[in-house]
Amino acid sequence: MSAPRAQLSVAVVGGGWAGCAAAVELARRGAAVTLFEAARTLGGRARAIEVDGRPLDNGQHILLGAYKHTLALLKRVGVDPGTAMLRLPLQMRYPADSGGMDFVAPRLPAPWHMLVALLRAKGLTREDKMALARFSSAARWMGWRLDTDVSVTVLLDRFDQTARLQRLMWHPLCLAALNTAPERASANVFLAVLRDSLGAKRAASDMLLPRLDLGALFPQAAGRYLASKAGTVHTGAKVESLMRVPGGWELAASGHALGGAWRGKFDAVVLATPPANAGTLLAPFAEAADLAVQLNSFEYEPIATCYLQYDPGLRLPLPFCALLDAPGEGRFGQFVFDRGQLDATQAGLLAVVISAAGAAAALDQHALARACAVQLGAAFPGLGLDKPQWSRVITEKRATFACTPGLARPENATPLPGLALAGDYTAGDYPATLESAVRSAQAAASIILRGGASSAGNGSLSHAGTSPPAESVQ
Length: 474
Hints:
The protein is α+β, with helices and mostly antiparallel strands. The chain has helices at 17-28, 68-76, 81-84, 112-120, 126-141, 152-158, 163-178, 187-195, 202-205, 214-217, 219-228, 275-282, 289-295, 358-361, 365-379, 434-451, and strands at 9-13, 32-37, 48-51, 54-57, 63-64, 85-88, 91-93, 102-104, 207-210, 232-235, 238-245, 248-254, 262-266, 268-271, 300-309, 320-322, 335-338, 349-355, 390-401, 419-421, 460-462. It folds into three domains: 9-56 and 215-298 and 405-462, FAD/NAD(P)-binding domain; 90-205, no CATH class; 300-401, Polyamine Oxidase, Chain A, domain 2 (Alpha-Beta Complex), CATH 3.90.660. Helix content is 32%, strand content 22%.
């Protein structure tokens, strides 16, 4: 009889959602996984933080019912999406009497949910509704894709979308989904998002708002899952270099959790760091020179979230509302979320989201928080929202890549055997979302498992002649 095949050892570099998802998938399929994260907590650009003793997220997220890979992954690590998130029908709703619109898809089978929503929509003229119906019909006919990518603005003008419809619906949807201004955002990526929202089954188009903080929603549960599969998680551990060695890869890392400088050998590696970090690690390899250049060429867009605390008795009419933004007039927010309607421990806390926040990020924190408070005060008169008790702005300067027309995004596979990329920036239909991060991670895991079996059994760990301290996330 042949000897049993040894377990494949895989290092996952980066503990954001893509890295955690890749680690979970690898462990589920039998690999011995070691996850390295340079920060002290898992989650990357979608994580929980503490500010002035308050637990906050580093940004507000909305998921779609169409995010089937993410929802399945949450279940796999023991998180029930039904209780962890508030499910709402697809909607674009502005504060009453603010000059916006009120569009809500009823819980009817597709496509009736969209037809009835359009008929019932308030704040849109007959011309606006006809334009939206024509656009949806044409987008379906062409398979939600253009042969030649253009900007979202060009797409909307090409299909005669009214100025009001662009202002109230397409502009905020584009910013929310792609984090890129319509005049420079990819029409094809935008169409892919619309395909799975406006053009999808009703349940797929639902909006899901996390009730849990982003750390509890997935990264912490992923850490527990890895521990149950005998995986290891090192936080505060920065991987500084990679080296090809017979039978696999050697990683050089450092960090308090590792006891200082550390080296370890693995059969394969998943790079789940931001593109620029991955490019730096790949730069020494001649075969990956072009890939390293591509990884270092991405442009980025910021997202700012302004948290404002009011009296715990405050409650907005809806869990979240769209806002009429006008950066030139000091109105930067595109959406406001009533965190108290998602988590009772955050009663009175509002979160104003500013996507593609270049202009807003140029302001200091106090000035931006003040501008958001004034904007809320005008949108919801009589609630005293212009005078918060406390405020804080959290800005992710490189929240997403700029999702521009025709952008070339790298594949998960690389020219280096036993090394794959995982991240929301890799090739795919979607912009930088949690779903694209999870899909990419699972694709990277499959590449490693398909190509790594022949080299299994070579994994070993070393630190000055001893095994490194294991730090499992609980």
